[in-house]
Amino acid sequence: MEGVRPGGGPPAGGPGSGSGSGSGSFPSLFPPGLHGIYGECRRLYPDQPNPLQVTAILKYWLGGPDPLDYVSMYRNLGNPALNVPEHWHYVSFGLSDLYGDNRVHEFTGTEGPSGFGFELTFRLKRETGESAPPTWPAELMQGLARYVFQSENTFCSGDHVSWHSPLDNSESRIQHMLLTEDPQMQPVQTPFGVVTFLQIVGVCTEELHAAQQWNGQGILELLRTVPVAGGPWLITDMRRGETIFEIDPHLQQERVDKGIETDGSNLSGVSAKCAWDDLSRPPEDDEDSRSICIGTQPRRLSGKDTEQIRETLRRGLEINSKPVLPPINAQRQNGLNLDRAPSRKDSLESESSAAIIPHELIRTRQLESVHLKFNQESGALIPLCLRGRLLHGRHFTYKSITGDTAITFVSTGVEGAFATEEHPYAAHGPWLQILLTEEFVERMLEDLEDLNSPEEFKLPKEYSWPEKKLKVSILPDAVFDNPLH
């Protein structure tokens, strides 16, 4: 639970208390990491030393559910000269190391990132007559913070978050998010490391899909050029009823489609509902089967495989690839739409998965025939994987959110893969790699064209290429939610 109160910091020794509140000096009890972030807020808002603040009543480090200790809410007058409207500016406290005593984050020195290295911000257009900021963005930020703490996947500028529900729990079309650098807040050096500020930007479903097919930075630049869709400071307007492509139809063809053709996609992996079977083995041989329908416990990824897949998702097999954010599926909790973050044991950095079986005992196996299974949302990303990644000499990884299974598609130009042109299907424990030639990719794109029209889709749906000994099934979510189904 959270409470709303005025104040720029903790009740005891906070910025609004004592003689330091007006002079810029702070009481010694004020945590240094919090001090650094608050100082940057004071630089932007010198006339608002005690903003309204949402605070976690039971702090995370005392066993509470909310990782953010505070979310401060400021009134920003905008910039009429730049066509920036008046808005509410939200700033989180807690993703970075506020205390430096290992109660939440491990202290690793002053040179690197503080905690996760960033705090979240959000800019919400102020409605006419609105005298106080809505508090729902604070819960949205707590949801994202829970995802970061539970999965240990950090955010980067250009990342996207699939939320699948109006951010304010209304009827709004703004149902997903992109992340970018806050246009006003500068990185802060604290005694516990550096803190940067990543701003949440609300977007429509069509804009999210464009970011997935192309890249987040490109869509952010387009949003900056459309005042009602964000403008230069990327302010979220929950009442926006049109996408940027409806406002300016030329943006899709002249910018996005051309960008996809030229640049491909920056998205190199997602967490997904997926599974695979080795069809070249007898059905009763479930030791090496990766089907979600088997009743026995599948063998877990080794620590070395876990590290390699994590690097595949974050960095990619090729050099200088962009870090990747697995999408987040919304679920309803306590009347609010929050993230369904994978638990620590299901994350790529699962401690339990590293000790199940030594890496040396899991051999790489060449498979003759494979069957891939995806839910509809994951299957809809296959054309992106093929067109935006493999045709540009890259790779794409699906990591199961219900276990340690992983499927990586690779092109012939990707180095470091254990699948080869001679043996295009290869598995290392529950990690499957599939190498596809450009010719086969082009054929698959033709055969999978109806994946681009989900409204006309009826499940289950099966695609098969017998001469390639490859089968792909798109299945209902229930199959993946019930492993014994």
Describe the structure.
By secondary structure, this protein is of the alpha+beta class. It has two domains: 32-263, no CATH class; 268-281 and 362-484, Sufu, C-terminal domain (Gyrase A, domain 2). It has eleven helices and 21 strands. The protein has helices at residues 32-44, 136-151, 205-213, 216-224, 244-247, 250-263, 303-314, 376-379, 382-389, 438-447, 477-481, and strands at residues 2-6, 52-56, 70-76, 87-93, 113-125, 160-161, 176-181, 188-190, 193-203, 269-272, 274-278, 329-333, 336-340, 364-366, 370-375, 395-400, 406-410, 425-428, 431-435, 461-465, 470-475. Strands 1, 2, 3, 4, 5, 6, 7, 8 and 9 form a nine-stranded mixed β-sheet that branches. The protein has a six-stranded mixed β-sheet with strand order 10-16-17-19-18-14, with helices on both faces. Helix 3 (205-213) crosses helix 4. The longest helix is centred in the first third of the chain and has 16 residues, at 136-151. The radius of gyration is 24 Å and the shape is globular. It starts with a strand and ends with a helix. Residues 8-28, 284-299 and 315-361 have low confidence and may be disordered.
